[in-house]
Automatic annotation (TrEMBL):
It comes from Pseudoduganella albidiflava. This is Alpha/beta hydrolase. Pfam families: DLH (PF01738). Residues 1-38 form the signal peptide. Coiled coil: none annotated.
Length: 320
């Protein structure tokens, strides 16, 4: 029920994304809600799970943060909220299977929460099984109320239109902490590339919803990050100006996505106009937030399509 209410309010209140990367998009705090799992939509607070392999990044604590990190369960998955210190968790393939390619994985959640299972750990495990080293980025988030009822009220206010609108900012400014976390993630993987069996020049990034916004922003404004390839999984497709030598781009979106399916495909057109490699999968059904959830729709095939695309570009084979 919560997911259905959230989506209906978004249909009424979110303007099409026509003015740039973040126009209207940063308000998508319920972007992690897959309608197929609505029977499990209650947010249940849980203790922070063990993260023994998580490495703290050197970007420091979120400036001005007063609420500390907390976790909850929803849709049969786990989510992190109020992340104030970024971490990176490696998922490495067996040495005999490793191809040397790597992916920084950025979960989504409207920059207010992170879908750590469905769009993070599960994706990373599946990539490692293909021989690709994967690193889940738990990036810093916008602060939300500490207790769950207050958080839910704040979300309801935001989607009702009662919250005061903020002026649109340059994505490089709006997402400065998150872009810094992504840059630190790339720097860390490159610094330990020999230890982790990674080729420094074959590190890409894949993001989901808000994580897709961060992935694209990292490619556009991330300076030294320079991902070798990027994947935008149900993120916004507003037109941009690709940088010179823009990385190959993989895009997956459902035609019934309530947030991003009706604003055109300008991002794909931008890459094509720049004569840069791009692949676009538009699934008839799947909604938003399908990630690694098993569903009866063809959107479940996005991961197979993505790994086939990686293989086409040589990332599933060890570089000779």
């Amino acid at each position: 029920m919560q997911a259905q209410i959230c989506m209906e309010k978004n249909r009424r209140s979110i303007r099409p994304l026509t003015a740039g990367l973040l126009a209207g998009a940063l308000a998508l705090a319920c972007a992690f809600a897959p309608p197929a799992m609505a029977q499990d939509d209650k947010m249940t607070p849980i203790a922070a799970p063990a993260q023994p392999n998580a490495i703290v990044l050197d970007t420091g604590a979120l400036p001005g943060a007063t609420v500390q990190e907390s976790w909850h369960r929803q849709y049969g998955s786990v989510f992190a909220r109020n992340v104030t210190v970024a971490t990176l968790t490696p998922f490495l393939p067996p040495k005999g299977k490793a191809t040397g390619a790597a992916v920084i994985v950025a979960p989504g959640g409207g920059f207010r929460t992170l879908s750590m299972n469905n769009e993070g750990w599960d994706v990373a495990r599946a990539l490692a099984d293909k021989g690709v080293a994967a690193f889940v980025l738990k990036y810093r988030l916008n602060q939300t109320p500490a207790d769950m009822p207050a958080f839910e009220r704040a979300m309801a206010e935001m989607f009702s239109g009662a919250a005061k609108p903020r002026p649109q900012q340059d994505p490089a400014v709006e997402l400065a902490p998150q872009i810094a976390d992504a840059r630190a993630a790339f720097a860390l993987v490159r610094s330990r590339a020999a230890e982790w069996g990674v080729d420094r020049d074959r590190i890409g990034m894949a993001g989901f919803s808000a994580g897709a916004m961060l992935t694209l922003s990292t490619a556009l404004y991330g300076q030294d990050a320079k991902p070798a390839f990027i994947a935008n999984i149900y993120g916004p497709l507003s037109p941009v100006t690709p940088p010179a030598g823009a990385p190959p781009l993989f895009v997956a979106l459902a035609a019934d996505d309530p947030f991003f399916a009706n604003a055109g495909y300008g991002l794909v057109d931008s890459w094509r106009a720049a004569k840069r490699p791009v692949e676009f999968h538009l699934y008839e059904q799947g909604g938003h937030g399908f990630g690694m959830y098993p569903k009866t729709t063809t959107s479940t095939g996005w991961f197979d399509g993505f790994t086939r695309w990686l293989g086409m570009h040589g990332y599933l084979q060890r570089k000779s």
